Amino acid sequence: MDFLASLPHLVSWVIFLPAIGALVLLFVPSDNAVRWTSLGVTVLTFLISLGLWAGFDAEALSATGPQLVEQVQWFPGVDITYFVGIDGLNLLLILLTTLLGPIIVLSSWTYIGKQIKGYYALLLILETGVLGVFASFDLFLFYIFFELTLIPMYFIIGIWGGENRIYAAVKFVIYTLFGSLLMLVGVLWLGFAAGDAVNDGVFTTNWYTLVSYSIPLGAQTWLFLLFALAFCIKVPLFPFHTWLPDAHVQAPTGGSVVLAGVLLKMGTYGLVRFCLPFFPNAAQTFAWPIAILALIGIVYGALVAYAQEDAKKLVAYSSVAHLGFVVLGIFAFTTEALQGAMIQMVNHGLSTGALFLIIGMLYERRHTRLMADYGGIAKSVPILTFFMVFSVLASVGLPGLNGFVGEFLILLGTFKSEVIGGWAITLIATTGVIFAAVYLLTMLYKTFYGELDKDSPNATMPDLNAREIGLLLPLAVLMFWLGFGPAPFLEKSERTVNLLLETIETKRIAAIEAEREAVVALPLSADDLP
Amino acid sequence: MYASFLTDLAAAFPTVLVAVLGIVVVLYDSFRNDAPAIPWITGGGIAVALALELLHLGDPGEPILWNQLYAGGFASYVNSVILLGAFASVILSVPYLKRINRNYGEVHALILFATCGMMVLASSASLVSVFVGLETMSICLYVLTGLVREEPTANESALKYFLLGAFSTGFFLYGIALIYGATGTMVLAEMPAELEATGRTGFMYAGLALLLIGFFFKVSAVPFHMWTPDVYQGAPTTITGFMSTTSKAAAFAALILVLSQAMKGAELVAQWSVVIAAVAAVTMILGNVLAISQTNVKRMLAYSSVAHAGYVLTGLAAGTPEGYSGALYYLLAYTLMNLGAFGVMAALEWDDEQGAEQTLDSLAGVGYRKPILGVTMGVFMFALTGFPPLAGFIGKYMVFAAVVDSGDTWLAFVGVTASIVSAFYYLRVLVAFWMRSEEDSPERVRQSAFPVSNLTALVLVGCAVALLFFGVLPGGVLETTQSFFVEAAVAFGG
User: What SS3 state is found at A530?
Assistant: First the structure.
């Protein structure tokens, strides 16, 4: 892997290789060739992205720039650059994205029956968009990639989705657009203000320059609200979550996996990357309200998931609950909780991704997702059942599997937190873990155990084929690995998380002192004297 | 004196060329009625003029012909946009006019004369040229609107356009008269100094207000937009594309010239920027909201182009070099995406009855039948909504950045809110094109097979690629447009 790390423009290759693949697809004639080309491109992207893991030296990360950095001037006269790189926050998410790439391609192999070329081209463009979001260190560039992900996802839901796909697709775009366009005004304001304050009057969207600018408290509040709204819709945090079940249920399996696996992470990642370090005071002021919304999301998501009859909808609502945990971890402002949130983003991508894949496989066999239509299928499809049980247990947070690590760290960090700390909040969050066990195990029971009706098609369902095992196996291995030995993964983000929290604390105190000085200095200004 | 006249004429050669070509086409047409060579002569001439303007893009702008016109720099840029739009319209019109049996030679002569008027308008250095250019352009457009002369709706829209246009011309002229009264000069660049000398600011305000009404009418800003939907719907589709893009580019260019040169006193700017900001806000909101309820796509695009006038006005409302240059970039993006959208709609009209009822329902599943139209329409719709990485996004970004910088953050909020609204109806077009099945469209439409000519496909793909190119690499255009306003004195030579 070391030789990969020395490739020139490694990050750019990882980001744009899928898009180049999408262009190549235009000239590929047959459907089968399209599938194999897409698989080849995504596998190649994954292999190259392993170079990022090898090339990233977590201990040597400086506070002034990312590693494997590439920066090119983009706009004339202003400080908007093509600026990508790797640090502890985005490394794992980028690898998660590139890993899910081939898995999604494989999962769509037979599921997608029409307009195959268009589907795979959009999928590849979507991968480029998501990778760009994670790798950007320029706010403007981030915004472009953030919006770019909407276009392919809109078509994937709207063309290859279920009955109600048009409604779901439009709702998905309008919701996200609402948040992100309002954020755009915030980006502009912030760019000019930071430019005047710390960049010789030149408009800037460079992440490091923006972080170095301590924003006045009043402006922090409304800027934070604009940014947080955009990201919380994407997460989605209760009460902005209503687009998610629609999008998930209507999307084809591949779309659901991208959505749950990485698209939602753009929201939580945005909160960590931008909201916390840019607006530390406002973030702490609003930590309580957001934590309460996250808690409501955890409990409400779990309760609604329990009431579902459609297995896919159940998993969709479980996402609301799980991401509530991540948001809680982010706003606890402790190393443990933030580390937990970072690792939980990856965990959720793996386990929920696997759940959606398996439900998609069942749907391909029986064309129904209602749990009542199944029952006892553990006997007819044992391998599928094995993977299902594995993923459910990981999702529930069984010690030894990945979900436990993230949830434990988040709960620990939240308990210790000085911002939103306390036993009450931890207790409520813990009930969420129990609820998750209840609804996921109930689903498992209703669908896979109990009596198998010998006359129904359930009894004659074929078990997983080699392709399906092949695409679930890496996920299962990683769920196990992250649960048993999470240290190598946590090490990658530890220094970055600590640097981030230090910056937040320094900036927070500086802003308060600046405000105090301004108040003290006020009567001394000449205009105010009688 | 004559030596300078000749060099000036050489500097204005592209404009002259277009005018002369118009006369040639009229003559040729009267000897060989509707000769098939006419569109090619027209297109070729416009292409030559475009190439010449592009060569002069880097020149410092300077006043020529006794302070009547500008050449080079700003004028070259806007003229290039206009000629680009005219060129694409002519090419798109060739198969379209044939299909609707309106392959008249005079169409091309009128397009040429209109283009000439627009170029004069966009490079005018005095209010006289503004008026001459405006009228030359408008009269040709009135006629072009009523091209399908047997059709009552076409006549209605032409008459409506003419009457309301004449009305607005009255305002415009009165405004010019008052401004002349206030300053004693018609030359834009001389006005600030003259105004200071005379001190007749009251006249100036009144004149500017009337002038603005005239401009608002021409760019179809709310509340002077009433004519737009009817006219855009009633006119032949490629002509709608032509007039909705190039005529707006020209009128906006003239407005920028008037504001940045004649009205640049700080007191004046403070007055008119409030007015323009208010009009921009109302235009963006109303244009987009009214577009939502439309089912006829041409009419919907008409309201959308009302809304887009609001976005350009947003850049002007900033009253800063960044605002003007952002608006100029926006005009290029808008020309490409709107012309493309109307081009697709024109290609979808495959008999002369169908155009009048081109509804979202009749377009169900059309993307699968004509992928080239479906894909390019996707690009145009996303560009019009303002999705990155297309040029439409950069345009919006530049004008919003300009108002945030000048302190009118509220206007940026209005703009983005309006954009969210607009996403709703632009996406609906794509829903019809790609997400609904063909079975939903009427049987008559389903059965008709229609070819997409290679020329049309070429122009549409060209527009789409250009939108992507200028969206990903906007640096060159932005540097050019910003250079016009760095030192206004140098750029305009005044």
Answer: coil
Copy the structure tokens of residue B49. 């003029």
Report the mean per-residue pLDDT for chain A.
88
Q: Is residue A100 part of a domain?
A: no
Residue B447 is predicted with a pLDDT of 66
Q: Number of A to B CB contacts under 8 A, please give it.
A: 86
Strand segments (E) across A256-299: none
Say what angle helices B127-145 and B201-218 make with each other, to 10 degrees: 20
Q: Contact B475/A75, CB-based, under 8 Å?
A: yes
Q: How many domains does chain A have?
A: 1
- Cβ of B423 within 8 Å of Cβ of A173? The answer is yes
State the total domains in chain B: 1
Residue of B420, B427, B482 with shortest CB distance to A170:
B427
Confidence check: pLDDT of A51 > 50 = yes
pTM equals 0.92
Tell me if the bond preceding B389 is cis, omega within 30° of 0: yes
What's residue B494's pLDDT?
A: 38
Query: What is the predicted ipTM?
Result: 0.90
User: Looking at CA atoms only, how far is residue A487 from chain B in angstroms?
Assistant: 39
Q: To probe the interface with B, which of A78, A184, A187, A222 has the most B CB atoms within 10 Å?
A: A184
Which 8-state DSSP code applies to residue A377?
Answer: T
**Cα separation of A334 and A415, whole Å?**
10
Chain A residues whose CB is inside 8 A of the B401 CB are 188, 191-192, 203
What's the one-letter identity of residue A395? S
Q: Which residues of A touch B382 (CB under 8 A)?
A: 151
Residue A522 covered by a domain: no
Q: What element of type H or E holds B349?
A: none
**Domain residue limits at B294:** 2-492
- Does residue A442 register a pLDDT over 60? yes
* Residues of B whose CB is below 8 A from A74: 475
- As a whole-number percent, the residues of chain B with pLDDT over 70 amount to 95
Closest-CA residue to A216 (of A224, A208, A204): A224
Tell me, yes or no, whether A463 lies in a domain.
yes
Q: Given a cut of 80, is residue B73 above it in pLDDT?
A: yes
Say how far apart CA B389 and CA B373 lie, in whole Å: 20
Nearest Cβ partner for B420 among A150, A170, A178? A178
Cross-chain residue pair B400–A185, CB shorter than 8 Å: yes
- Give residue-wise pLDDT tens across range B247-287: 999 999 999 999 998 888 888 888 899 999 999 999 999 99
pLDDT band at A485 (very low <50, low <70, confident <90, very high): confident
The chain B residue lying nearest A165, using CA atoms, is B435
Number of Cβ atoms within 10 Å of the Cβ of A20: 14
**Which chain B residues are Cβ-neighbours of A185 within 8 angstroms?**
400, 404, 409, 412-413, 416
- Shortest distance, CA A140 to any CA of chain B (angstroms): 10
Q: Does B375 touch chain A (CB under 8 A)?
A: no
Strand partners of residue B296: B359
pLDDT band with cut points at 50, 70 and 90 for residue B489 = very low
Contact A148 B389 (CB under 8 A): yes
Residue-number span of the structural domain to which A361 is assigned: 286-485
| Span B217-238, pLDDT tens digits | 999 998 899 899 989 988 889 9
Q: Is there a domain that residue A502 lies in? A: no
